[in-house]
## 1
Amino acid sequence: MSGPTLLPGATGLNGDGQQTTLGVMGGGQLGRMFVHAAQSMGYFTAVLDPDVISPAGLVSHYHIKTDYLDQQGLAQLMQRCAAVTTEFENVPAGALVTLGAARPTAPSAEAVAIAQDRIKEKAHLARSGVPVAPYAVIEAAADLAAVPDALLPGILKTARLGYDGKGQVRVNSRAELAAAWDGLKSVPCVLEHMLPLAAECSVIVARGSDGTCVHFHPQLNLHRAGILAVTQAYEGNMPLALAEPAVTATKAIANELNYVGVLCVEFFVLKEGSPERAALGALVVNEMAPRPHNSGHYTLDACDQSQFDLQVRTLAGLPLTQPRQHSAAVMLNLLGDLWVNGATPAWDQVLALPGTHLHLYGKLKANKGRKMGHLTVTAADAAQANAVALQAAKLLGMAAF
Ligand code: ADP
Ligand code: MG
């Protein structure tokens, strides 16, 4: 994308003559936080999401309630908006192609298409010169037979539409692999070798159409049952010998894609002394997300610019300056599990703790495993942020970390 600078409050940049409006495909929590950031800068916003009560739709100036591929819905979005972004990678790439032909669209349909298909994604990562888990593509029964023994035990992942650990099966033997592929309806998959993880981390960068690329310090992430549970974000959360190459690799991936927008890359840190670490190095790329990321929510409260502010800037063609983190932060994801028997968690007790920032996404149904919100604890140092986050976790009935 390279387009005009879209100043907030200007008129005549949309097709509709109204003040500059930024659009987002998808109405989830990431779209909601994008809308908040855009509005606080003075933009109007439009959300396209079929769900009539989506988290972003609830807070946007305009909410177009059609399917992502609905031609009328897309036409309305283009008419309303000066530029369009996306908040989840499973937006049909065809919709972004349509939008991109008429309006600046970032990230591009091409980048999203790569990130939404693990087979294309792995090929791109290899092109970027970053190590990935040893893997095989499984598209036909013959591919199962050809799997080398060294890939087992492994994780079979559907190439498309997986998230929060969904569409993944851990397999120890060839028999389990065959059964798992059958269970996944024999759709295209990748089988990854199960790596011995010491930790997981992620890096978020924002890249403009002029190639400027800024980044946040890497986040240390704890997953439970395939879902992000805790993010620790502060200097010293991991050795610099890991943090620096993780940032460099993320920028290489963004540059190789000629990416415009906010990009998150997830990494595995391999166990010291393991044969996998000897073969691959300490850092292995897991996957990328062509959008702001759950592990970057702390930037709302702990940095002078959040990942959503940077998403707005990249979309509007505004300057990018390196964000600065002013507080140590620990983020806890608030899953539907915390609403025991439908009861609202004791937010008043949690908010009595110093440096707590509650973000709820406006979702009505607190289903198990559903991301209902997050809590960020900010503090002057990491020890304090962790201590308060542990107290908050205890109050909420979450496991310690
Ligand atoms: P999702 O798209 O659901 O986030 P991921 O591929 O990131 O899927 O996998 C979810 C989690 O499963 C990871 O964060 C990690 O904890 C674990 N996992 C995934 N792949 C591997 C692997 N090859 N080796 C070890 N653990 C893995
Ligand atoms: Mg992941």
## 2
Amino acid sequence: MFNIILFGPPGSGKGTQSQKLVDKYGLVHLSTGDLLRKERKLKTPLGLEAQQFIDKGQLVPDEVVIGMISSALDENPETRGFLFDGFPRTVAQAEALDRLLALKKSEISLVLFLEVDEEELIKRLVHRGKTSGRTDDADENIQRKRQEVYKNETLPVATHYGKLKKVVTIDGIGTIDDIFARLAFHIEKKIK
Ligand code: AP5
Ligand code: MG
């Protein structure tokens, strides 16, 4: 399997680029944000519990998201690989993912790190908030909180995979197509 983590702060373009990457490379897209929003829409107990964290810009507890990812891995035994978007977001999640993949005789092949400065991120999310209907987009204070949580809890995930020499940093500023070309370049270098 070829497994990619698309990494980066809230608003860096992970969702936007994931769509194009899974089409091109035939991977299964696993976005914990999308999975949690789906649960919320269905008003499941998990969805309702998660909503309290999402609305404050905080992370949902590790056990909840790790459980969702574990089920999703089991549901797709025949895939060429997975594209993880918005997961792992803590070192504990990264370690759990590494273990789950090892059980399937697989591993993370590549971590693509989209770098975008904070002012651009807030600008993008304020803009998205006008149409997305996402409760965590509506308020600039919540967006700032999400950026802070990212720096404190999620950035160490890059260090974790950096030690394993799996991280490639990509300039996340530019047109969507330019950024896609940068990502594709590194994927193809790795696939060969
Ligand atoms: P999640 O849904 O994962 O949100 P996020 O990481 O905060 O990231 P976003 O979806 O906001 O941004 P993105 O990088 O996908 O950018 P996008 O492509 O949309 O998580 C939401 C919440 O769920 C978390 O806060 C947490 O509570 C919970 N959660 C989720 N996963 C969790 C986990 N693993 N553990 C614990 N809790 C978890 O782009 C952003 C905007 O910019 C769009 O409007 C887009 O059109 C625009 N844009 C994209 N590319 C460009 C470009 N090149 N130039 C200009 N604009 C662009
Ligand atoms: Mg997203």
